[in-house]
Amino acid sequence: MTEQAKKDGQTNSCPVYKKCSGCQLRNMTYEEQLKFKQIKVDRLMGKLCRPDRIIAADNPEGYRCKVQGAFDFKNGKCVSGVYQSSTGGVVAVDRCEVNDERADKIIKAVRKTALGLKIPVWCSFNGKGFLRHVLVRIARNTGEIMAIIVGTSENFPSKAAFVKCLTEKCPEITTLIFSVNRSDKMNVGDRCEVLYGKGYIEDIICGKRIRISPKSFAQVNPAQAKKLYELAVRSAKLTGKETVIDAYCGIGAMSLMAADKAKKVYGCEINKSAVNDAVINAKLNGTENAEFICSDSGKFFAEFNEENLKADVVILDPARAGCDRKFLSELVKVSPDRIVYVSCEPETQARDVFFLIKNGYKLKKLMPVDMFPYTNHVETVCLLSKLKSDQHIEVELKTDELDLTSAESKATYDEIKAYVKEHTGLTVSSLNIAQVKQKCGIIERENYNKAKSKDSRQPKCTKEKEEAIVGALKYFKMIG
Q: How confident is the model at residue 137 (pLDDT cuts 50, 70, 90)?
């Protein structure tokens, strides 16, 4: 945003604000965004625990250090920018204000290099072309930069010339990777070929040297990630005597931080690449009391229980969909004294916290962190403590307020809506979802989204929306 725009009070100066939809809150000032997110968290779990004041970003612009640029050939011109799943096309963006400027420069250079060498760019109209997208990762504290070129086949046209030309244009790139992905999803493929450099980058996160490989997860906002991780580990109240499990541990940043203050740490993660990085990261930092296991978290906890092992503290940071019922059931059996639940989706977190409360835990603290300025997303850290056997807690809580459809529900209505919107671009209503769930044999609460009388006319869900909702129900494992 320009200085003049700021002086004029403009908040949506981005020319593609409405087309891109990446910054949903671009029409708000940063203070208004923080208030919006504070209220969102309070409405979800305020009856259980008064949220702390949201931790703001020191700089809400230029924070994204993981940036994806998609390519498309439109109207005889190659463009790069934001992929739109609803249309299968690309919104042209050369400079995004929330991205690290170096990432945008590299994406633009990749596009120009491909055009100069006549490398065919993907075209959404005919489904042909080689260059699909590029992923740029920047290590803020070391300056190392990884660029991952994703193509549609193993045959990379003019590969040697491309590498030479791009690295000359962008000498700041420390490693260049090539991966193949033939699907419509904007993912890095299973196999990664190192074209230049060492094949990974290293950064300093909370004082720990951390390796990040092409397929490993790392937070997009390193400045806020530092605040988040420090908050989570501090909330665990470790004294040096505890056994800790870090579920969904990723590359092990929080595990290593916890290991400094605990007796033993077990990190569990299903992503093999991330676990490999975590093991290496433990060695890089001389950490000997952290052990990393590649496993589904629910399965790991079940095995932990079978061996009658004890954990004093569990830290968990699941994906946006939250935890499944199997995992939560096994977590309760582990019976840790404290649970630190980190989440990027407070709606699914509220659902899971409610389950834990019903099974002997109390929500002690609720701490929001603004990890993604200008978006409607908010990160939250919940501290739960186990009630003693002679204690109990009664919470007057309507399940509607946590958007639960039944005791066996695996996803909220808002979560299903968000999934459908993200993957199809369609906007579905709660009534649409209720109709499809009823059709699929999922029992609804009495009178939930039902007509007030038998004669009331309800709009029927279109076939397109029904298929999209069914896809979401399958994703959340609510139907087979």
A: very high
The predicted-structure confidence for 340-390, as pLDDT tens digits, reads as follows 999 999 999 999 999 999 999 999 999 999 999 999 999 999 999 999 755
Share of the chain above pLDDT 90, in %: 66
Name the pairing type of β-strands 264-269 and 361-369. unpaired
Give the span between the Cα atoms of 369 and 346, in whole angstroms.
11
Q: Burial, 76: exposed, middle or buried (Cβ in 10 Å; 0-12, 13-18, 19+)? A: exposed
Q: Catalytic residues, which ones?
A: 344
Q: Could you tell me if 325 and 223 are in contact, meaning their C-beta atoms sit under 8 angstroms apart? A: no
CB 382 within 8 A of CB 356: no
**Residue among 355, 169, 206 nearest 281 (CA):** 206
For residue 258, how many C-alpha atoms fall within 13 Å in the half-sphere facing its CB? 33
The half-sphere exposure of 172 on its side-chain side, counting CA atoms within 13 A, is 17
Contacts of 395 (CB under 8 A, 6+ apart): 47, 48, 357
Q: Please, which pLDDT band fits residue 195 given cuts at 50, 70 and 90?
A: very high
Q: What is the domain extent for residue 164?
A: 66-205
pLDDT digits over 216-236, tens only?
A: 999 999 999 999 999 999 999
CATH of the domain at 351: 3.40.50.150
For residue range 75-90, list pLDDT tens digits in order: 788 888 888 766 667 8
Beta bridge pairs of residue 244: 265, 313
In a domain, 467, yes or no: yes
Q: Which two tokens stand for residue 157?
A: 């046209």
Between 277 and 184, the more confident residue is: 277
Residues 341 and 362 in one domain: yes
Which of these, 185, 254, 244, 186, lies nearest to 218 by C-alpha position? Answer: 254
Q: Both 291 and 389 in a single domain?
A: yes
Kindly report the number of other CB atoms within 10 A of residue 47's CB atom: 15
- DSSP calls for 312-372: SEEEE---TT---HHHHHHHHHH--SEEEEEES-HHHHHHHHHHHHHTTEEEEEEEEE--S
